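Example record

The entry below shows one chain as it appears in the dataset: sequence first, then structure tokens.
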Amino acid sequence: MIGTEPQIRSHHLLQIATAILVVLLLTTCSRRVDTRDRMSAEPTDSDQLTEEQQEMIQQLESIGYLAAAEHGPERPGLKPAKTYDEAKLAKGINFVVSSHGREAYLMDSDGQVLHTWSHRALRPEKRRRTKKILKTWYIRKAHLLPSGELLAILGFPHDQATPKDFRRVGMVKLDRDSNTIWEYLGKAHHGVDVKEDGTILVLTHEARVNPFIHQSNPVLEDFVVSLDKDGSELRSVSVLECLKNAGSSELIARMRALADEGNGDILHTNSLEIIGSRLADRLPGAKPDNVLISMREIHAIAVLDLERQVAIWTATGTFRAQHHATVLENGNIMLFDNQGPGGEYSAVREFDPETMSEVWAYVGSPRQPFHSATVGATYRLPNGNTLIIEGKKGRVFEVTRQHAIVWDYMNPHRLLDDRIARIWDMQRLDPDFPLEWLERPAGPIASLTSGPEGDGTPPASAAAISSK
């Protein structure tokens, strides 16, 4: 039976209204997980935080590393370094950062120390107040400048909570005699690099409640901060915002999953490097002053354009909890894969950034055990060898392209209970790195740093020392 015209019109309107309601319901359900996309990413004001949230924030900002791991073997009369093949060893001086104290040092291939930088104390008015906590502090990462000056990021064991009134200590600049030039109190961690114009880039972090990631659980956000040569802050760029602006939905989902599980350390960015033209020429839209970062907790690496505040390239793979993504001379990317497939051994992997296909790898095995669950780093040397920092074990070794070990070093420094001090980083200085500022040391290593005629004048470069 056909209804009247008003009845038909009413029926059509009801159908339209029902259809609209269904569409709205489906849209809401399909975007339920992504409602945070429409929320402000601005942090919740501190006066609006609960006591529990404030405590979680302090715990996040106190994250550090244990300074030691395993018990060291008995080493009476043993040297810390052993060369297996002198002819294949890459020449150069080693720049070392260890967890045994607030210092960094230069060392030859025999393990003899040539020069040391020490961070004695902070500002005089803080010395007495912080004396106890500083006993356990160390230099976590350092950048050696050609002048002999040092940019040093301070670290602390995670079981030593940072005092509330002293938690902003981050990075210092020391002269070659270890005098403090300036301090940057900005929660610096893990990574620092310097642009050609002298601008300093450093990783920092801040814990806060960010509704974009989680409505109530605080998260630890990482930033790339630019400093001028005097340590004054120029700008700060959020790593999270760069990923968000790039629409990196998979990585954002990983961060949200971590926050949902109560792990607020959603990124744990652990390396920072200016990519230069070697990598910029291979990635569409990349510029030489972009930066390559490694994000441990989401098992990813990325290239950030700090000017545009966007990630122009991201990559994941079989690597897990990786550290120290670095650009090689050929434009490939190499990283330290802490917990790759299986997790029993660590690996060093070289990738083609355009395809992410693996070009070369060194993987631990029962025959050549190699594993550092947390920290680690790796460098390609001028002769093609690879320097591998098995940081948690306090070990560094050098391998050829064919995987032969030509040099092995075990940290001689011990902490409590004879545990081995970790090696955070060891870099083999380029042969042309200037060392005119290096003083002639006293004792048996004087011949290593004397000039060509043995007259006590300092050598002109690292090559002049290593060739002795």
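Notes for this example: The chain is about 15% helix and 30% strand. The radius of gyration is 26 Å.
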